[in-house]
Amino acid sequence: MVGENEEYMLELLGKGKREQERDKMQYRDIKIEMGKIPHAEGSAQVDIGDTRVLAGVKIAVGAPLPDKPDEGALITGAELLPLASSTYEPGPPTPEAIEFARVVDRGIRAAEVVDLKSLFIEEGKVWSTFVDIYVLNYDGNLFDAGTLASTAALLSARMPKYEDGNVIREGNLGKLKTSGKVTSCTFAKVGNTILLDPSGNEEKVMAGRMTIANDENVIRAMQKGLRGAFSYSELSSMMDTTFDKSKQLRDILNKAVGE
Fold this sequence. Notes:
Elements: H1 4-14, E1 30-34, E2 42-48, E3 51-62, E4 73-80, H2 95-110, E5 120-122, E6 125-137, H3 142-156, E7 161-163, E8 166-168, E9 183-190, E10 193-196, H4 200-205, E11 208-214, E12 219-225, H5 232-257
Parallel strand pairs: 4-6
Antiparallel strand pairs: 1-2, 2-3, 3-6, 5-6, 7-8, 9-10, 9-11, 11-12
Helix pairs in contact: 2-3, 3-5
């Protein structure tokens, strides 16, 4: 049975329209603000329309993974703050928060944004890089906002020093060594229509979701959500759009981090 919200959305799409009077493959306004968390190694806030996501990076000494003794660690977590949406509640991470963190982490890791080998300190000690993502306001498309915020925070992060068993976070510090950049494009299928950058109302009625993460030349990760199916031609079209729109996202990212 079609609900009122879905009926309204399908009626809009039938007229070739969508909310905010934008095209099917058009992002809402995107803004990146750097250095929002003073005591973090790096941080960035990203607004996509009314969706607002904050990412902070903390770097600490830890033990390496047993199968990667000469590499540092990357740990990504996400919190859906109750102030961001009436549907979010306090408590342990929800499946939605876990999926959000994993999708962002997968893109960052696959694109090798962080040079993990550069985080080796000495036998039994490495730097662990924590990326914490906080949803401050929800209006759809957390994945692209989270990927942008996390990547910007990592690219701007200062690298602590380890001297005589002490961690030094002040003074003349270099940047965290990075070796790539990643952005993602998220699509929603509403009825038979594919939409880029779904709003909150569009996500409520979407049958399927696809997030595609890429760097400049290579698709690095893909994540499908919900039960709706995508045809081969639809997937191919979304991949082409991802490469095209990622240029816009990288331009915004580069400007924010000063590159």
